Amino acid sequence: xxxxxxxxxxxxxxxxxGSFGSLQPNEVLDHLVxxxxxxxGSDKLFMVLEVIQYAIKLVxxxxxxxxxxxxxxxxxxxxxxxxxxxxxxxxxILGDSRTLWRIWGLLPIVKWLISLERSxxxxxxxxxxxxxxGWSMLMYYPLEHLSYLLSHGLIPSTIPSLASLFSSTxxxxxxxxxxxxxxxxxxxxxxxxLQFAHLREDFKLLRARQRSLRxxxxxxxxxxxxxxxxxxxxxxxxxxxxxxxxxxxxxxxSLEKGLLKNDVxxxxxxxxxxxxxxxxxxxxxxxxxxxxxxEAAEDAxxxxxxxxxxx
Length: 311
Known about the structure:
By secondary structure, this protein is mainly α. It has helices at 4-16, 27-36, 39-72, 82-101, 106-118, 124-151, 177-216, 223-254, 263-284, 294-305; strands spanning 158-159, 173-174. It has a two-stranded antiparallel sheet with strand order 1-2. α3 (39-72) runs antiparallel to α9, α5 packs antiparallel against α6 and α8 (223-254) packs antiparallel against α9.
């Protein structure tokens, strides 16, 4: 009897506390942990949540309509929908959480610009384009941060001007969250437009790389070289799709009255951008196959994509 009790407790320990021992290591789970462990990866997850947020915006009016119709038919006591209110709160939390996550977004921008000046670029045009993109983000993030803090009442809407240090009659500066958000998105739209110029330079470089490999190999390309070109072209077309999806969104949010009259299109373009951005990051964090060159895979992503705005 004295031996059976410790054994039964040990068995219970193994069954309950050691239950994860029955699970096998999972490559997809390992990949997901690697991906979400990066700054870009975590924000890509918030992109997916943003798509869910826009879907919720479409569901909520339907739930309200259903509740009113059921009330008129005598199927419910009130015309209000508790589900619609709950979904609306979830959508608000999702949108707020992603904006809050970007509060540190300026740090990787500064790191990127420092690295840009210390790393040789393939062409002078690419250097100029990426410099302009970096400076556009230096304007985008602070304006978005100010708009976010203002809209939540975390900072006052009126702040003293620098002239107040020298004159007591100087006028204070009035901050408008809506205008700050509008201008921040305009700098984002400028980045997206510049990215098309970046992609044009990328296309030229990829074509030149493809021609040089074919000329250097009179008998055809090796399997490693074919894989390298495949990775580079895949990253290029993926980034083109992402940028094409971002263009109408940034233009829409840059205008006071908007560009897209139906929120369905905002959800559609957001879904496309979110999926393609997630796909690029997923491939970038994949472990290299034994038959491919890790350096080639990494260079393909960096050279083709430049800087990913979503980080």
